[in-house]
Queue: 2 jobs
Job 1
Amino acid sequence: MDYIASEKGDTAENRDPNSVVSNGASKVSSIENKSSVDCDKLNSIAPVDSVPCTSEKPQETELCDIPEQIEFTVIFNKNKHDITFAFDATVLELKAHLERICAVPQSAQKLIIKGMAKDDMTLRKAGVIKGGKVMLVGSKMDDILAVKSAPKEILEEKNSSHSSKEPLCMQKIHQKVLDKGIPPDVMAGLKGVKEPLPPTPLSGMLNKHGGKVRLTFKPEQDQLWIGTKERTEKLAMTSIKSITSEPIKEHEEYHIMGLQLGPTEASRYWIYWVPAQYIEAIKDAVLGVWQFF
């Protein structure tokens, strides 16, 4: 077989009839070798575990301390309100919250939890428990304004009628009971002292028939229980229109107290020998803070 002459001389490449293929493969191989060398150089410069740089900063996780919450029920005028509130918030802060819900001004509110709760107490310290009940006593702003706007003549007439009446203890209807003397098992009375209601019922007192009377306050149910030997009457506190009381002459450590259960004074339920130190607490528990009459 004759070989074709080349200007470059008689090389193995020129003599090989497959020189074009061999030459191409040789060129590809040289390119791959060059790429391999370049990669080795890059690897020798940059660390293997290097991470590409970005302009974005990693997001920082913000930790927020959520105050411990407590769920309980507030009862006001037979209505129940489910409340979720910070367990270590103060009673005053709760009152501000309830003002928006119940329309009762903060200053007109009293919260009964385990007795009367003080404004600076936390809910935890005051005794609020999960699923428990808190009694709200007070008057709505509309009711307060209505009482304030009562005609002056009506107020004067009411005051004059009170002043013209003889003392309760001097009236015959009451003397019949008072003449029996102080009941032997009545609770001790204190003159000129104001105390909160005790955790136990007020006992040893008498009704107009001379029978024994016991008062049990149930703020969580908005009720006052009047117990006698025969039965126990459970009265809604909102059904009691007013409370009248006067010291008993020569025994000022005790009072005569009348609970008005109907629209007129004739509907009063009279109780005798009520310890004087609890009179204001009884009025606050039943009528609330705002008492104008």
Job 2
Amino acid sequence: MSSVRQEGKDQIIFVTKEDHETPSSAELMEEDLDDPYEERGLILPNGEINWNCPCLGGMASGPCGTEFKEAFSCFHYSKEEVKGSDCMEQFMAMQECMQLYPELYPQDEAATQVQSSEAEQNSPDSNATHAISNEESQE
């Protein structure tokens, strides 16, 4: 004997072996675009960004959520030949915010090494440092 139980928004149906032997009479409901429980992907049917998508890992709601949304929106809507190349300012603001919360946004070692090597290359002493290392390698 089958039974139906409602738990919040979910309906749980227990069926018997005999129930499985007959064709289903279930009717599919049309998708409700306003249903807050409906799972959606990153991009909504209307083309907007779904800030509630679990795929974002909560980035849109953390302490740097505003900066993340601005950077991600800029990238998503970018029309530049190199997509997002017009969004450096927003991504820099997001990165600066994340550095204020290292416990929430840990930096991996590879990213830290890349950042420090880029900073070294852009420093005023970088030409002198490279010249010294080149002389040492020729000796």
